[in-house]
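Sequence only, no structure available. Ideas?
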Amino acid sequence: MKSTYLYSYLISFVVVFFLSGCDFKLKPFDEEESDTLSVIIQRYDRMESLFLTTGDFSALQQMSTEYPIETRTLIENVLELGTVDDPEINNRFLRFYQDSTLQTIISDAEAQYANMEDLNRQLSSAFHKLNQWLPTLQAPLIYAQICALNQSIVVGDESLGICLDKYLGEDYPLYKRFYQPEQRKSMKRSNIVPDVISCYLLSKYGHPNYQEKTQEELDLQLAKIHWVVNKVLGYRAFSSRYVTIIDRYMAEHPHVSIEKLLLDKDYAKYRNAH
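Reply:
I predicted one. Tokens follow.
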């Protein structure tokens, strides 16, 4: 288990990019409202939990058959247990989670997230708004999983995995062994939707060559994404000095579109909005 809090993009979160050809799922709420998106979190975590707590290999087979890319990403990129082609990988995967702390986390995560309808509604609303502002941006496949505290959100080509074990509440007893109070503040259910939207936008509008950018440029680009997330959600999920700068700039330039804001790499103009 890695105790480092891995939700940071250079400053605030790390996202695992596993580029692959995933399908995404978009469904209308009903036939008459085909312009309203329905985003449903896929319950990959239930298959995972069944295998990891009972050793039921039929559950693992279901994971590998229905979610082959997500399973490979979890085993190879998130947990770094080896390759899925290794003859011993299934037993290694199972043994890894036999730690008593991880077994407790699995049980608590499944109990807390037995029902996720509230998150489905919030994500559906958020992606519907994003689709209006950014028509070419399609909702990804979103699934829940248990990541042994290694990450919060795992981003693929057109998929996002929510690591439920990183959202058990800031007062969750086991967190106190691994995280500082400031870190635990964001490890709760209400942070899932803001984190999903920000990570997905970052995967689409972040700096591909971030090593070549200054820290201020990175801060401003992240702030633009956080500003958009705040606007999508209708409340200030993210706050920082740079988000305030973007807020001020957009108030002074109401005709600048969301897409233009996210694509704009002329950072000098934002300094004038300090």
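Residues 215-233 form the longest helix (19 residues).
Hope that gets you unstuck.
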